[in-house]
UniProtKB/TrEMBL annotation:
Keywords: DNA-binding. It comes from Streptomyces antimycoticus. Residues 11-79 form the HTH merR-type domain. The keyword DNA-binding applies. It comes from the Bacteria. GO terms for molecular function: DNA binding; DNA-binding transcription factor activity. It holds the Pfam family MerR_1. This is MerR family transcriptional regulator. SUPFAM superfamilies: Putative DNA-binding domain (SSF46955). SMART domains: HTH_MERR (SM00422). InterPro entries: DNA-bd_dom_put_sf, MerR-type_HTH_dom, MerR_fam.
């Protein structure tokens, strides 16, 4: 095993990497041929793998355990989240070119991601993040699709919320947000898109102009709902405590 003191990234020969990943050398070769892992560093005829390769292999193992096929895993790894989605696709209309605003992706090394979440980046959490589409793998780097979501997750972990709980909540929020998005898309398709086409207007521009209305509605409703929740929590009498009326 070779160690680079400059970047503290350990390197392994193929048999050692396979052993650490809990797979056979034959399986490792197969993954390399399928381009599921990046090429090793070559030193003459010797191939050196490092901790980035080991992290990738552990991620693959976690995805396989969750029922993903190798083909699906290859798509997840190859996918590069741009954070953009065409409005025409959302509305089911041809010819529209405007897009919803994009999120800002963030590139991180595996070590930087681990430091960002203070040791909470386990194989299970990586697998969940890939499954949610928050993370994609690009060579030796990990790409998080959204700076905003990354920062929120980091803050919650800093406040003592386990990353696994953050991701579980994110999956639940995703389900609710998908339903909200469907409501607004149906509203726009039914009452805006058709009329805009009849008037000869650009559907994409019309939808883009109205998009902030949907964001405002969701933000206002969420604020009011959280206020109701907090009041309900405050009004509850704690065990052994006294009510406000004495």
């Amino acid at each position: 095993m070779a160690t680079s003191e400059a970047d503290e990234v350990r390197e392994y020969r193929m048999p050692e990497l396979a052993e650490k990943a809990g797979i056979t050398v034959r399986t490792l070769r197969f993954y390399r041929e399928r381009k599921l892992i990046p090429p090793p560093r070559r030193d003459g005829r010797i191939a050196w793998y490092n901790d980035h390769h080991l992290a990738r292999l552990r991620t693959i193992a976690g995805l396989l355990e969750r029922g993903h096929t190798l083909g699906g895993i290859a798509e997840l790894i190859a996918a590069f989240e741009s954070g953009r989605r065409d409005v025409g696709e959302l509305l089911g209309l041809p010819g529209t070119v405007a897009s919803w605003p994009s999120e800002t992706p963030v590139r991180l090394t595996p070590e930087a991601l681990a430091d960002y979440f203070h040791g909470e980046v386990t194989a299970e959490n990586l697998t969940t993040s890939l499954d949610l589409g928050y993370l994609a793998v690009d060579g030796d780097e990990i790409v998080h699709l959204s700076r905003r979501l990354l920062d929120v997750s980091h803050t919650l972990v800093e406040q003592g919320v386990p990353l696994a709980a953050v991701l579980a909540a994110a999956r639940e929020v995703r389900d609710h947000v998908d339903a909200i998005a469907e409501t607004f898309v149906t509203l726009l398709r039914t009452h805006v898109a058709a009329d805009a086409l009849e008037r000869g207007e650009d559907v994409g521009e019309t939808v883009e102009r109205l998009r902030p209305l949907a964001t405002s509605v969701v933000d206002a409703e969420l604020t009011m709902a959280m206020n109701r929740r907090m009041r309900a929590e405050t009004d509850e009498t704690p065990p052994g405590g006294h009510s406000g009326n004495q």
